[in-house]
Amino acid sequence: MNDWPNTIARPTIAAMSTYSARGASGDALHLDANESPYAPPPMKGADNYNRYPAQQPPALMARLAGLYGVDEARIMLGRGADEAIDILLRTFCDAGKDAVLICPPTFGYFKTAAQIQGANIIEVPLNDDFTWDKDAMLAAAPKAKLIFLCSPNNPTGNIIEADLLEKLCNTCPDSLIVVDEAYQEFSSADGYVGRLGEFRNLVITRTLSKAYGLAGVRAGVALADPAVIALMRKVLPPYPVPRPVEKAVTAALSPAAMSLHAARLTETLSERERLEGVLAQSKFVSDVFPSEANFIAFTSSNAEAMLRALQAYNVCIRDFRSKLPGLFRISIGSPSENDIALAAFGVGKAEQVVPRIAEIQRTTKETDISVRVELDKSAPIEIDTGLGFFDHMLEALAKHGGFSLRLKCAGDLHIDAHHTVEDCALALGEALKMALGDKAGIGRFGFVMPMDETQARVAIDLSGRPSMTFKGTFPSDHVGAFPAEMCPHFFESLAQTLGAAIQIDVDGDNTHHIIEASFKGVARALRPAFSRSYGDAVPSTKGVL
Protein backbone atom coordinates (compact mmCIF):
# COMPACT_ATOMS: atom_id res chain seq x y z
CA MET A 1 0.00 0.00 0.00
CA ASN A 2 1.34 3.42 -0.95
CA ASP A 3 1.58 5.39 2.29
CA TRP A 4 2.84 8.61 0.71
CA PRO A 5 3.17 11.28 2.10
CA ASN A 6 3.24 9.67 5.57
CA THR A 7 6.61 8.22 4.61
CA ILE A 8 8.16 11.70 4.31
CA ALA A 9 6.28 13.34 7.20
CA ARG A 10 7.73 13.46 10.69
CA PRO A 11 6.88 10.07 12.21
CA THR A 12 5.25 11.76 15.19
CA ILE A 13 2.87 13.65 12.90
CA ALA A 14 2.09 10.66 10.71
CA ALA A 15 1.16 8.58 13.77
CA MET A 16 -0.87 11.19 15.66
CA SER A 17 -4.62 11.62 15.55
CA THR A 18 -6.18 14.88 14.47
CA TYR A 19 -7.29 17.10 17.34
CA SER A 20 -11.06 17.28 17.43
CA ALA A 21 -11.89 20.79 16.24
CA ARG A 22 -15.33 22.06 15.36
CA GLY A 23 -16.47 21.02 11.93
CA ALA A 24 -19.33 22.18 9.75
CA SER A 25 -22.12 21.38 12.18
CA GLY A 26 -24.63 23.94 10.99
CA ASP A 27 -27.12 25.22 13.55
CA ALA A 28 -26.60 22.47 16.11
CA LEU A 29 -26.96 23.29 19.80
CA HIS A 30 -23.31 23.36 20.85
CA LEU A 31 -22.80 22.18 24.41
CA ASP A 32 -19.48 20.53 23.55
CA ALA A 33 -16.77 23.19 23.86
CA ASN A 34 -17.31 24.97 27.19
CA GLU A 35 -18.23 28.24 25.48
CA SER A 36 -20.31 31.02 26.94
CA PRO A 37 -23.94 30.72 25.84
CA TYR A 38 -24.07 34.52 25.64
CA ALA A 39 -22.79 36.77 22.90
CA PRO A 40 -20.49 39.66 23.93
CA PRO A 41 -22.04 43.05 24.70
CA PRO A 42 -23.76 44.44 21.61
CA MET A 43 -21.34 45.38 18.85
CA LYS A 44 -21.81 45.52 15.12
CA GLY A 45 -21.17 42.22 13.36
CA ALA A 46 -20.45 40.23 16.52
CA ASP A 47 -22.82 37.36 15.69
CA ASN A 48 -21.58 34.02 17.07
CA TYR A 49 -18.44 35.55 18.58
CA ASN A 50 -19.09 33.46 21.67
CA ARG A 51 -18.81 30.24 19.61
CA TYR A 52 -15.62 28.69 18.30
CA PRO A 53 -15.36 28.78 14.51
CA ALA A 54 -14.74 25.74 12.33
CA GLN A 55 -11.07 24.99 11.71
CA GLN A 56 -11.74 25.54 7.99
CA PRO A 57 -14.97 27.60 7.64
CA PRO A 58 -17.11 25.84 5.01
CA ALA A 59 -18.51 28.87 3.15
CA LEU A 60 -15.12 30.54 2.99
CA MET A 61 -13.42 27.33 1.89
CA ALA A 62 -15.95 26.99 -0.92
CA ARG A 63 -15.20 30.54 -2.04
CA LEU A 64 -11.44 29.93 -1.96
CA ALA A 65 -11.90 26.73 -3.95
CA GLY A 66 -13.67 28.78 -6.62
CA LEU A 67 -11.05 31.53 -6.50
CA TYR A 68 -8.13 29.16 -7.03
CA GLY A 69 -9.90 26.55 -9.13
CA VAL A 70 -9.16 23.56 -6.89
CA ASP A 71 -11.11 21.12 -4.69
CA GLU A 72 -11.52 22.11 -1.04
CA ALA A 73 -9.56 19.01 -0.05
CA ARG A 74 -6.50 20.65 -1.63
CA ILE A 75 -6.71 23.79 0.57
CA MET A 76 -5.43 24.61 4.03
CA LEU A 77 -6.47 28.07 5.21
CA GLY A 78 -4.45 29.79 7.89
CA ARG A 79 -3.13 33.08 9.19
CA GLY A 80 -1.35 34.17 6.05
CA ALA A 81 0.99 32.23 3.81
CA ASP A 82 3.51 32.55 6.65
CA GLU A 83 1.51 30.07 8.70
CA ALA A 84 1.39 27.66 5.77
CA ILE A 85 5.21 27.78 5.60
CA ASP A 86 5.45 27.23 9.34
CA ILE A 87 3.00 24.31 9.26
CA LEU A 88 4.92 22.66 6.42
CA LEU A 89 8.11 22.75 8.47
CA ARG A 90 6.41 21.45 11.60
CA THR A 91 4.77 18.67 9.63
CA PHE A 92 7.70 17.41 7.59
CA CYS A 93 11.00 18.49 9.19
CA ASP A 94 12.51 16.98 12.33
CA ALA A 95 14.84 19.36 14.15
CA GLY A 96 18.52 18.68 13.54
CA LYS A 97 17.74 15.94 11.01
CA ASP A 98 15.87 17.26 7.97
CA ALA A 99 16.96 20.11 5.73
CA VAL A 100 15.35 22.79 3.59
CA LEU A 101 16.73 24.35 0.41
CA ILE A 102 16.45 28.09 -0.21
CA CYS A 103 17.87 30.34 -2.94
CA PRO A 104 18.82 33.76 -1.54
CA PRO A 105 18.04 36.53 -2.00
CA THR A 106 14.48 35.36 -1.49
CA PHE A 107 11.61 35.64 0.98
CA GLY A 108 13.33 35.90 4.35
CA TYR A 109 10.72 33.97 6.31
CA PHE A 110 11.74 30.72 4.62
CA LYS A 111 14.99 30.82 6.58
CA THR A 112 13.43 32.22 9.74
CA ALA A 113 10.79 29.49 9.92
CA ALA A 114 13.40 26.82 9.28
CA GLN A 115 15.60 28.19 12.05
CA ILE A 116 12.66 28.20 14.49
CA GLN A 117 11.93 24.55 13.66
CA GLY A 118 15.61 23.62 13.96
CA ALA A 119 15.82 22.39 10.38
CA ASN A 120 19.13 22.39 8.55
CA ILE A 121 19.41 25.01 5.81
CA ILE A 122 20.99 24.48 2.40
CA GLU A 123 21.55 27.69 0.45
CA VAL A 124 21.99 27.85 -3.33
CA PRO A 125 22.26 31.58 -4.15
CA LEU A 126 20.77 33.03 -7.30
CA ASN A 127 23.05 33.85 -10.19
CA ASP A 128 24.22 37.42 -10.67
CA ASP A 129 21.35 38.03 -13.10
CA PHE A 130 18.88 36.72 -10.46
CA THR A 131 18.17 33.48 -12.36
CA TRP A 132 18.24 30.20 -10.47
CA ASP A 133 21.44 28.11 -10.52
CA LYS A 134 19.80 25.01 -11.97
CA ASP A 135 22.75 22.63 -11.78
CA ALA A 136 23.55 23.51 -8.18
CA MET A 137 19.91 23.27 -7.18
CA LEU A 138 19.38 19.86 -8.80
CA ALA A 139 22.54 18.59 -7.11
CA ALA A 140 21.48 19.83 -3.65
CA ALA A 141 17.74 19.21 -3.85
CA PRO A 142 17.72 15.46 -2.96
CA LYS A 143 19.28 16.36 0.40
CA ALA A 144 16.33 18.60 1.32
CA LYS A 145 12.91 17.61 2.63
CA LEU A 146 11.43 20.96 1.60
CA ILE A 147 12.58 23.06 -1.36
CA PHE A 148 11.36 26.64 -1.02
CA LEU A 149 10.95 28.73 -4.16
CA CYS A 150 9.33 32.15 -4.55
CA SER A 151 7.80 33.00 -7.93
CA PRO A 152 7.67 35.89 -8.65
CA ASN A 153 10.69 36.00 -6.40
CA ASN A 154 10.89 38.47 -3.54
CA PRO A 155 12.84 40.79 -3.76
CA THR A 156 14.00 40.32 -7.37
CA GLY A 157 10.57 40.12 -9.05
CA ASN A 158 11.39 37.39 -11.59
CA ILE A 159 9.64 34.04 -12.10
CA ILE A 160 11.02 30.52 -11.94
CA GLU A 161 11.39 28.59 -15.17
CA ALA A 162 8.87 25.79 -15.67
CA ASP A 163 11.50 23.27 -16.74
CA LEU A 164 13.39 23.68 -13.47
CA LEU A 165 10.25 23.21 -11.42
CA GLU A 166 9.33 20.08 -13.40
CA LYS A 167 12.80 18.59 -12.91
CA LEU A 168 12.70 19.22 -9.18
CA CYS A 169 9.27 17.60 -8.86
CA ASN A 170 10.27 14.58 -10.94
CA THR A 171 13.77 13.96 -9.56
CA CYS A 172 12.96 14.57 -5.88
CA PRO A 173 9.92 12.37 -5.14
CA ASP A 174 10.69 12.36 -1.40
CA SER A 175 10.86 16.15 -1.20
CA LEU A 176 8.09 18.75 -1.28
CA ILE A 177 8.61 21.50 -3.84
CA VAL A 178 7.03 24.58 -2.24
CA VAL A 179 6.34 27.55 -4.53
CA ASP A 180 5.34 30.76 -2.77
CA GLU A 181 3.08 32.60 -5.24
CA ALA A 182 2.31 35.62 -3.06
CA TYR A 183 2.67 37.91 -6.08
CA GLN A 184 1.21 35.68 -8.79
CA GLU A 185 -1.77 37.94 -9.45
CA PHE A 186 0.64 40.61 -10.73
CA SER A 187 2.51 38.25 -13.06
CA SER A 188 2.02 37.93 -16.81
CA ALA A 189 3.02 34.25 -16.64
CA ASP A 190 0.79 31.38 -15.57
CA GLY A 191 1.22 30.19 -12.01
CA TYR A 192 1.51 26.57 -10.99
CA VAL A 193 -1.80 25.92 -9.22
CA GLY A 194 -3.12 24.30 -12.38
CA ARG A 195 -0.32 21.72 -12.23
CA LEU A 196 -1.03 20.37 -8.76
CA GLY A 197 -2.66 17.31 -10.31
CA GLU A 198 0.56 16.49 -12.19
CA PHE A 199 2.91 16.53 -9.22
CA ARG A 200 1.81 15.12 -5.88
CA ASN A 201 4.87 16.68 -4.20
CA LEU A 202 4.10 20.22 -5.42
CA VAL A 203 2.82 22.71 -2.82
CA ILE A 204 1.67 26.25 -3.63
CA THR A 205 1.25 28.99 -1.05
CA ARG A 206 -0.92 32.00 -1.81
CA THR A 207 -1.75 35.07 0.24
CA LEU A 208 -4.70 37.44 0.31
CA SER A 209 -2.44 40.22 1.59
CA LYS A 210 -1.23 41.63 -1.71
CA ALA A 211 -3.71 41.66 -4.60
CA TYR A 212 -6.76 41.57 -2.30
CA GLY A 213 -5.65 44.20 0.22
CA LEU A 214 -6.01 42.01 3.31
CA ALA A 215 -2.52 42.23 4.83
CA GLY A 216 -3.93 43.37 8.17
CA VAL A 217 -6.50 40.58 8.25
CA ARG A 218 -3.91 37.76 7.97
CA ALA A 219 -5.23 35.06 5.67
CA GLY A 220 -3.45 32.77 3.26
CA VAL A 221 -3.55 29.22 1.97
CA ALA A 222 -1.49 26.19 1.11
CA LEU A 223 -2.64 24.32 -2.00
CA ALA A 224 -1.44 20.74 -2.42
CA ASP A 225 -2.28 17.07 -2.81
CA PRO A 226 -5.18 16.18 -0.46
CA ALA A 227 -2.95 13.76 1.47
CA VAL A 228 -0.42 16.54 2.14
CA ILE A 229 -3.20 18.90 3.21
CA ALA A 230 -4.65 16.27 5.55
CA LEU A 231 -1.30 15.98 7.34
CA MET A 232 -0.91 19.75 7.56
CA ARG A 233 -4.37 20.12 9.07
CA LYS A 234 -3.26 17.79 11.87
CA VAL A 235 -0.64 20.36 12.85
CA LEU A 236 -2.80 23.43 12.21
CA PRO A 237 -4.32 24.82 15.44
CA PRO A 238 -7.98 23.85 15.90
CA TYR A 239 -9.37 27.38 15.45
CA PRO A 240 -6.91 29.30 13.24
CA VAL A 241 -9.45 31.54 11.46
CA PRO A 242 -11.18 34.03 13.82
CA ARG A 243 -14.73 34.97 12.93
CA PRO A 244 -13.85 38.62 12.15
CA VAL A 245 -11.21 37.34 9.70
CA GLU A 246 -13.72 34.93 8.15
CA LYS A 247 -16.22 37.76 7.67
CA ALA A 248 -13.65 40.19 6.29
CA VAL A 249 -12.26 37.71 3.77
CA THR A 250 -15.71 36.57 2.68
CA ALA A 251 -16.78 40.17 2.07
CA ALA A 252 -13.55 41.04 0.25
CA LEU A 253 -13.96 38.06 -2.09
CA SER A 254 -17.64 38.58 -2.87
CA PRO A 255 -18.49 38.38 -6.58
CA ALA A 256 -19.15 42.12 -6.83
CA ALA A 257 -15.88 42.98 -5.08
CA MET A 258 -13.85 41.14 -7.70
CA SER A 259 -14.41 43.96 -10.17
CA LEU A 260 -12.76 46.38 -7.72
CA HIS A 261 -9.79 44.05 -7.33
CA ALA A 262 -9.51 43.85 -11.11
CA ALA A 263 -9.52 47.65 -11.40
CA ARG A 264 -6.83 47.98 -8.75
CA LEU A 265 -4.73 45.30 -10.40
CA THR A 266 -4.92 47.11 -13.75
CA GLU A 267 -3.84 50.33 -12.06
CA THR A 268 -0.95 48.62 -10.25
CA LEU A 269 0.38 47.06 -13.45
CA SER A 270 0.18 50.42 -15.23
CA GLU A 271 1.98 52.14 -12.37
CA ARG A 272 4.65 49.42 -12.30
CA GLU A 273 5.37 50.07 -15.97
CA ARG A 274 5.53 53.81 -15.33
CA LEU A 275 7.92 53.46 -12.40
CA GLU A 276 10.20 51.05 -14.24
CA GLY A 277 10.68 53.63 -16.97
CA VAL A 278 11.02 56.74 -14.83
CA LEU A 279 13.17 55.29 -12.03
CA ALA A 280 15.84 54.44 -14.56
CA GLN A 281 16.27 58.19 -15.16
CA SER A 282 17.10 58.93 -11.51
CA LYS A 283 20.65 59.94 -10.67
CA PHE A 284 20.42 57.63 -7.67
CA VAL A 285 19.56 54.49 -9.66
CA SER A 286 22.04 52.25 -11.48
CA ASP A 287 19.92 49.34 -12.74
CA VAL A 288 16.19 48.66 -12.69
CA PHE A 289 15.24 44.99 -12.93
CA PRO A 290 12.09 43.78 -14.73
CA SER A 291 9.37 42.77 -12.31
CA GLU A 292 6.40 40.41 -12.38
CA ALA A 293 5.26 41.52 -8.90
CA ASN A 294 3.89 44.61 -7.19
CA PHE A 295 7.37 45.90 -6.49
CA ILE A 296 10.54 46.80 -8.38
CA ALA A 297 14.10 45.82 -7.51
CA PHE A 298 16.91 48.21 -8.40
CA THR A 299 20.49 48.97 -7.50
CA SER A 300 21.89 52.29 -6.38
CA SER A 301 25.48 53.49 -6.68
CA ASN A 302 24.71 56.51 -4.47
CA ALA A 303 22.65 54.84 -1.78
CA GLU A 304 23.27 57.17 1.16
CA ALA A 305 22.33 60.29 -0.81
CA MET A 306 19.26 58.49 -2.12
CA LEU A 307 18.14 57.49 1.37
CA ARG A 308 18.53 61.08 2.56
CA ALA A 309 16.40 62.31 -0.34
CA LEU A 310 13.74 59.72 0.42
CA GLN A 311 13.78 60.64 4.10
CA ALA A 312 13.14 64.27 3.22
CA TYR A 313 9.91 63.15 1.55
CA ASN A 314 9.18 60.65 4.36
CA VAL A 315 9.29 57.73 1.89
CA CYS A 316 10.39 54.29 3.07
CA ILE A 317 11.72 51.58 0.74
CA ARG A 318 13.33 48.21 1.52
CA ASP A 319 17.11 47.98 1.83
CA PHE A 320 18.62 44.65 0.71
CA ARG A 321 22.27 45.67 0.71
CA SER A 322 22.99 43.03 3.36
CA LYS A 323 21.97 40.43 0.77
CA LEU A 324 23.43 41.94 -2.41
CA PRO A 325 25.51 45.11 -2.89
CA GLY A 326 23.43 48.15 -3.73
CA LEU A 327 20.08 46.28 -3.91
CA PHE A 328 16.81 48.01 -2.96
CA ARG A 329 13.13 47.27 -3.45
CA ILE A 330 10.28 49.75 -3.87
CA SER A 331 6.62 48.75 -3.65
CA ILE A 332 4.08 50.04 -6.16
CA GLY A 333 1.80 52.51 -4.44
CA SER A 334 -1.19 54.49 -5.65
CA PRO A 335 -0.53 56.98 -8.49
CA SER A 336 -0.31 59.88 -6.04
CA GLU A 337 2.00 57.92 -3.71
CA ASN A 338 4.22 57.04 -6.65
CA ASP A 339 4.34 60.70 -7.67
CA ILE A 340 5.75 61.53 -4.23
CA ALA A 341 8.30 58.73 -4.48
CA LEU A 342 9.44 59.82 -7.94
CA ALA A 343 9.79 63.38 -6.70
CA ALA A 344 12.07 62.06 -3.94
CA PHE A 345 14.13 60.25 -6.59
CA GLY A 346 14.47 63.56 -8.42
CA VAL A 347 12.58 62.46 -11.53
CA GLY A 348 9.10 63.79 -10.93
CA LYS A 349 6.98 66.34 -9.20
CA ALA A 350 4.72 65.46 -6.29
CA GLU A 351 1.17 66.11 -7.44
CA GLN A 352 -0.50 68.57 -5.11
CA VAL A 353 -4.01 67.89 -6.38
CA VAL A 354 -5.54 64.94 -4.60
CA PRO A 355 -7.11 62.51 -7.11
CA ARG A 356 -10.86 62.24 -6.68
CA ILE A 357 -11.28 58.49 -6.48
CA ALA A 358 -13.65 56.48 -4.30
CA GLU A 359 -14.60 52.85 -3.86
CA ILE A 360 -17.71 51.53 -2.18
CA GLN A 361 -18.78 47.99 -1.43
CA ARG A 362 -22.40 47.68 -0.30
CA THR A 363 -23.75 44.29 0.71
CA THR A 364 -27.27 43.59 1.94
CA LYS A 365 -29.52 40.56 1.90
CA GLU A 366 -30.86 41.72 -1.48
CA THR A 367 -27.75 43.02 -3.28
CA ASP A 368 -23.97 42.82 -3.41
CA ILE A 369 -22.57 45.95 -5.07
CA SER A 370 -19.11 47.33 -5.75
CA VAL A 371 -18.52 50.82 -7.15
CA ARG A 372 -15.36 52.64 -8.17
CA VAL A 373 -15.52 56.21 -9.47
CA GLU A 374 -12.72 58.46 -10.73
CA LEU A 375 -14.03 61.97 -11.29
CA ASP A 376 -10.97 63.22 -13.16
CA LYS A 377 -10.83 60.36 -15.69
CA SER A 378 -13.41 59.53 -18.35
CA ALA A 379 -12.51 55.84 -18.71
CA PRO A 380 -12.93 53.01 -18.14
CA ILE A 381 -16.68 52.60 -17.83
CA GLU A 382 -17.72 49.06 -16.93
CA ILE A 383 -21.26 48.31 -15.78
CA ASP A 384 -22.88 44.99 -14.90
CA THR A 385 -26.14 44.95 -12.95
CA GLY A 386 -27.97 42.13 -14.72
CA LEU A 387 -30.41 44.67 -16.19
CA GLY A 388 -29.40 45.52 -19.76
CA PHE A 389 -31.28 48.81 -20.06
CA PHE A 390 -30.15 49.93 -16.62
CA ASP A 391 -26.55 49.15 -17.57
CA HIS A 392 -27.03 51.34 -20.66
CA MET A 393 -28.38 54.20 -18.53
CA LEU A 394 -25.54 54.01 -16.01
CA GLU A 395 -23.04 53.95 -18.85
CA ALA A 396 -24.68 57.07 -20.27
CA LEU A 397 -24.60 58.72 -16.85
CA ALA A 398 -20.83 58.19 -16.57
CA LYS A 399 -20.06 58.89 -20.24
CA HIS A 400 -21.91 62.18 -20.39
CA GLY A 401 -20.96 63.05 -16.82
CA GLY A 402 -17.30 62.77 -17.81
CA PHE A 403 -16.19 60.36 -15.08
CA SER A 404 -14.91 56.81 -14.90
CA LEU A 405 -17.32 54.31 -13.39
CA ARG A 406 -16.97 50.65 -12.59
CA LEU A 407 -20.12 49.22 -11.05
CA LYS A 408 -21.07 45.59 -10.52
CA CYS A 409 -24.22 44.40 -8.80
CA ALA A 410 -25.46 40.91 -8.00
CA GLY A 411 -29.07 41.47 -6.95
CA ASP A 412 -32.30 39.58 -6.35
CA LEU A 413 -33.60 40.05 -9.88
CA HIS A 414 -35.59 36.83 -9.51
CA ILE A 415 -37.92 38.92 -7.34
CA ASP A 416 -37.87 42.21 -9.28
CA ALA A 417 -35.59 45.10 -10.23
CA HIS A 418 -36.39 47.35 -7.28
CA HIS A 419 -33.53 46.48 -4.92
CA THR A 420 -30.94 46.42 -7.69
CA VAL A 421 -31.85 49.88 -9.01
CA GLU A 422 -32.31 51.48 -5.60
CA ASP A 423 -29.16 50.04 -4.02
CA CYS A 424 -27.03 50.89 -7.05
CA ALA A 425 -28.20 54.49 -6.77
CA LEU A 426 -27.40 54.58 -3.06
CA ALA A 427 -23.95 53.07 -3.56
CA LEU A 428 -23.16 55.32 -6.52
CA GLY A 429 -24.23 58.44 -4.67
CA GLU A 430 -22.10 57.49 -1.68
CA ALA A 431 -19.08 56.90 -3.92
CA LEU A 432 -19.54 60.21 -5.74
CA LYS A 433 -19.87 62.09 -2.46
CA MET A 434 -16.72 60.44 -1.13
CA ALA A 435 -14.79 61.24 -4.31
CA LEU A 436 -15.84 64.91 -4.16
CA GLY A 437 -14.14 65.24 -0.77
CA ASP A 438 -14.40 68.78 0.59
CA LYS A 439 -15.71 69.99 -2.83
CA ALA A 440 -13.07 72.71 -3.04
CA GLY A 441 -12.97 74.32 -6.48
CA ILE A 442 -15.98 72.52 -7.95
CA GLY A 443 -18.63 74.16 -10.10
CA ARG A 444 -21.38 72.92 -7.74
CA PHE A 445 -24.27 73.74 -10.10
CA GLY A 446 -25.29 72.29 -13.45
CA PHE A 447 -28.17 72.38 -15.90
CA VAL A 448 -30.27 70.89 -19.22
CA MET A 449 -30.88 68.23 -22.14
CA PRO A 450 -32.90 67.78 -25.33
CA MET A 451 -33.27 64.36 -27.01
CA ASP A 452 -35.32 63.66 -30.14
CA GLU A 453 -38.95 64.48 -29.35
CA THR A 454 -38.07 64.56 -25.65
CA GLN A 455 -36.68 67.39 -23.60
CA ALA A 456 -35.31 66.99 -20.09
CA ARG A 457 -34.74 70.11 -18.05
CA VAL A 458 -32.34 69.27 -15.22
CA ALA A 459 -30.88 71.38 -12.45
CA ILE A 460 -28.40 70.13 -9.85
CA ASP A 461 -26.87 71.64 -6.73
CA LEU A 462 -24.19 69.69 -4.85
CA SER A 463 -25.22 71.48 -1.71
CA GLY A 464 -24.97 68.59 0.71
CA ARG A 465 -28.72 68.84 1.27
CA PRO A 466 -30.56 65.95 -0.43
CA SER A 467 -33.68 66.78 -2.38
CA MET A 468 -35.28 65.44 -5.58
CA THR A 469 -38.22 66.47 -7.71
CA PHE A 470 -39.32 64.67 -10.87
CA LYS A 471 -41.98 65.95 -13.23
CA GLY A 472 -42.86 63.71 -16.14
CA THR A 473 -45.23 60.97 -17.30
CA PHE A 474 -44.24 57.61 -18.79
CA PRO A 475 -46.39 56.34 -21.70
CA SER A 476 -45.49 52.70 -20.81
CA ASP A 477 -44.54 51.00 -17.57
CA HIS A 478 -41.34 49.19 -18.64
CA VAL A 479 -38.34 49.41 -20.93
CA GLY A 480 -37.20 45.83 -21.19
CA ALA A 481 -36.93 44.54 -17.60
CA PHE A 482 -36.52 48.06 -16.23
CA PRO A 483 -39.65 49.45 -14.53
CA ALA A 484 -40.27 53.05 -15.58
CA GLU A 485 -41.28 53.98 -12.03
CA MET A 486 -37.71 53.18 -10.90
CA CYS A 487 -36.34 56.10 -12.92
CA PRO A 488 -37.41 58.82 -10.46
CA HIS A 489 -36.71 56.45 -7.58
CA PHE A 490 -33.13 56.03 -8.81
CA PHE A 491 -32.53 59.78 -8.76
CA GLU A 492 -34.21 60.13 -5.37
CA SER A 493 -31.85 57.50 -3.91
CA LEU A 494 -28.86 59.07 -5.67
CA ALA A 495 -29.72 62.47 -4.23
CA GLN A 496 -29.92 61.03 -0.71
CA THR A 497 -26.39 59.63 -0.56
CA LEU A 498 -24.73 62.15 -2.89
CA GLY A 499 -26.17 65.01 -0.87
CA ALA A 500 -27.52 66.84 -3.90
CA ALA A 501 -30.62 68.71 -4.96
CA ILE A 502 -31.73 67.16 -8.26
CA GLN A 503 -34.64 68.66 -10.20
CA ILE A 504 -35.89 66.94 -13.37
CA ASP A 505 -38.70 68.14 -15.62
CA VAL A 506 -39.12 65.94 -18.69
CA ASP A 507 -41.59 65.79 -21.59
CA GLY A 508 -41.79 63.17 -24.33
CA ASP A 509 -43.81 60.50 -26.13
CA ASN A 510 -41.50 57.49 -25.70
CA THR A 511 -40.67 55.93 -22.33
CA HIS A 512 -37.24 54.81 -23.47
CA HIS A 513 -36.37 58.33 -24.59
CA ILE A 514 -37.82 59.93 -21.46
CA ILE A 515 -35.68 57.76 -19.17
CA GLU A 516 -32.60 58.11 -21.34
CA ALA A 517 -32.98 61.89 -21.54
CA SER A 518 -33.32 62.03 -17.76
CA PHE A 519 -30.10 60.06 -17.21
CA LYS A 520 -28.17 61.98 -19.86
CA GLY A 521 -29.57 65.29 -18.61
CA VAL A 522 -28.46 64.54 -15.06
CA ALA A 523 -25.07 63.48 -16.43
CA ARG A 524 -24.60 66.71 -18.38
CA ALA A 525 -25.62 68.68 -15.33
CA LEU A 526 -23.16 66.77 -13.16
CA ARG A 527 -20.26 67.45 -15.51
CA PRO A 528 -19.91 71.20 -14.74
CA ALA A 529 -20.96 70.61 -11.15
CA PHE A 530 -18.10 68.11 -10.68
CA SER A 531 -15.62 70.22 -12.63
CA ARG A 532 -12.70 71.33 -10.48
CA SER A 533 -11.95 74.55 -12.33
CA TYR A 534 -12.60 77.23 -9.76
CA GLY A 535 -9.46 77.43 -7.64
CA ASP A 536 -9.26 76.12 -4.09
CA ALA A 537 -12.32 77.75 -2.58
CA VAL A 538 -15.42 75.85 -1.55
CA PRO A 539 -18.30 77.31 -3.62
CA SER A 540 -20.43 78.48 -0.73
CA THR A 541 -20.64 81.64 1.35
CA LYS A 542 -20.66 79.33 4.37
CA GLY A 543 -17.20 78.03 3.43
CA VAL A 544 -18.40 74.45 3.59
CA LEU A 545 -20.78 72.19 1.69
- At the first level of CATH, what is the class of the largest domain? Alpha Beta
Question: Which percent band covers the strand fraction?
Answer: 15-25%
Low-confidence stretches: none
Largest sheet: 7 strands, mixed
Return the CATH topology of the largest domain.
Aspartate Aminotransferase, domain 2
Described by the principal axes of the CA atoms, the overall outline is globular
Give the averaged pLDDT, no decimals.
Answer: 93
Notes on the structure:
The chain is of the alpha/beta class and 545 residues long. It folds into three domains: 11-21 and 36-254, Aspartate Aminotransferase, domain 2 (3-Layer(aba) Sandwich); 259-344, Aspartate Aminotransferase, domain 1 (Alpha-Beta Complex), CATH 3.90.1150.10; 357-530, Ribosomal Protein S5, domain 2 (2-Layer Sandwich), CATH 3.30.230. It is built from 15 helices and 21 strands. The longest helix has 23 residues, at 257-279. The protein is globular and about 85 Å long. The relative contact order is 0.08.
What's a concise summary of this model?
The chain has helices spanning 11-15, 58-68, 80-92, 109-117, 134-140, 162-171, 226-235, 243-252, 257-279, 303-312, 335-344, 388-401, 418-436, 486-498, 511-530; strands spanning 75-78, 99-102, 120-123, 146-150, 176-180, 202-207, 220-223, 287-288, 295-299, 318-319, 327-331, 357-363, 367-374, 381-384, 404-411, 445-451, 454-461, 467-471, 478-479, 482-483, 501-507. Helix content is 34%, strand content 19%. It has 545 residues and is an alpha/beta fold.
